[in-house]
């Protein structure tokens, strides 16, 4: 087994889902050799539970001012071989993008041949990595990914697909047709960080995920860079389950139609998706005229929705406009959303 694989798992306040993810990684029939666990300053007792379950034997210090890393040894549940577990306790929540930046950088510096990226709510099937490893020797492949299934075993189509550089707002990705999943392999342009396996020499050329994104669309941005130097291959028989977190939207009705709206206390999270998509659209769209038309059209629709359905209307409108402007100007102040909404 010449290729060394290191999983990179980013977690924040989902300790029970994390344990299920870690167990699935330990049960792989094609074992992993390393596991970078990036704990984004969880406040739900994640380190204590990891200690209780034997994943770590030492708790991180309190009140750290920079990331703290410690290496531990766990066993693969399939063959009993050792897995090096690198537990990184972040000093603050850097979002999914910051967590994957940290994990990819550290895993790359440790010399692993492949890095398998996933959130803490992912659960790869036992033979998921084995099905992907068949293609390790294809030198023109820079990324591998399997099918993402929801708990009800339906395919989560937006996790794998093509990228459309002509019509880039409000979506840049085009999901694969379901019949594509019947093939042995499919060339794709993007795969979410729910089970994307990245080759080391690709990281050497394109660098690490863009930590400035904080959350949302960092995986699309990274795949655009990956595709510039090689192929990303979907292997449908490799399966990873995605246990989506519960939604926080509020249900409202307008003219008899059901609308889901974000609660004001959670509204700050919408900033990152808008800003990052605007940045991607401005940078990569083939038709700038079409991009600006689509962007302004979508902005007007959002403002209208706020006026008709939401509370704190002026704050929300100002907030949304700031997200668009910051995306156009490439400003990545990730503490700004909460300042805009909640500080007097």
Automatic annotation (TrEMBL):
Taxonomic lineage from the root: Bacteria, Pseudomonadati, Thermodesulfobacteriota, Thermodesulfobacteria, Thermodesulfobacteriales
Domain Glycosyltransferase 2-like: 7-52, 73-206
Organism: Thermodesulfobacterium geofontis (strain OPF15)
Similarity annotation: Belongs to the glycosyltransferase 2 family.
Matching InterPro entries: Glyco_trans_2-like, Nucleotide-diphossugar_trans
Entries under Gene3D superfamilies matching the protein: Spore Coat Polysaccharide Biosynthesis Protein SpsA, Chain A
Superkingdom field: Bacteria
Keywords (A to Z) from UniProt: Glycosyltransferase, Transferase
A single GO molecular function term of this UniProt record: glycosyltransferase activity
Pfam families: Glycos_transf_2
Protein name per its UniProtKB record: Glycosyl transferase family 2
């Amino acid at each position: 087994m010449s290729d060394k694989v290191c999983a990179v798992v980013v977690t924040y306040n989902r300790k029970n889902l994390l344990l299920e993810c870690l167990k699935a990684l330990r049960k792989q029939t094609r074992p992993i050799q390393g596991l970078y666990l990036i704990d984004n300053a969880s406040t739900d007792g994640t380190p204590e539970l990891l200690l209780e379950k034997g994943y770590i034997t030492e708790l991180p210090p309190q009140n750290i001012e920079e990331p703290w890393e410690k290496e531990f040894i766990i066993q693969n549940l399939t063959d009993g071989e050792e897995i090096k577990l690198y537990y990184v306790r972040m000093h603050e929540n850097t979002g999914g993008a910051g967590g994957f930046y940290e994990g990819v950088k550290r895993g790359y510096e440790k010399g692993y041949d492949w890095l398998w990226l996933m959130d803490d709510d992912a659960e790869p099937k036992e033979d998921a990595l084995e099905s992907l490893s068949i293609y390790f020797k294809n030198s023109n492949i820079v990324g591998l990914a399997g099918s993402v299934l929801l708990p009800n075993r339906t395919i989560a189509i937006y996790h794998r697909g093509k990228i459309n550089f002509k019509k880039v707002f409000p979506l840049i990705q085009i999901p694969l047709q379901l019949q594509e999943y019947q093939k042995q392999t499919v060339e794709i342009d993007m795969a979410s960080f729910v089970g994307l396996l990245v080759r080391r020499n690709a990281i050497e050329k394109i660098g690490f995920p863009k930590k400035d994104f904080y959350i949302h669309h960092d995986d699309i941005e990274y795949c655009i860079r990956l595709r510039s130097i090689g192929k990303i291959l979907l292997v449908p028989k490799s399966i990873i389950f995605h246990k989506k977190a519960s939604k926080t939207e509020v249900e409202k009705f307008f003219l008899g139609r059901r609308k889901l709206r974000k609660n004001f206390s959670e509204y700050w999270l919408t900033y990152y998706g808008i800003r990052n998509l605007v940045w991607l659209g401005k940078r990569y769209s083939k038709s700038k005229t079409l991009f600006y038309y689509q962007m302004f059209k979508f902005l007007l629709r959002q403002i209208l929705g706020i006026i008709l359905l939401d509370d704190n209307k002026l704050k929300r409108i100002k907030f949304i406009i700031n997200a668009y402007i910051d995306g156009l100007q490439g400003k990545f102040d990730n503490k700004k959303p909460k300042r805009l909404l909640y500080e007097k």
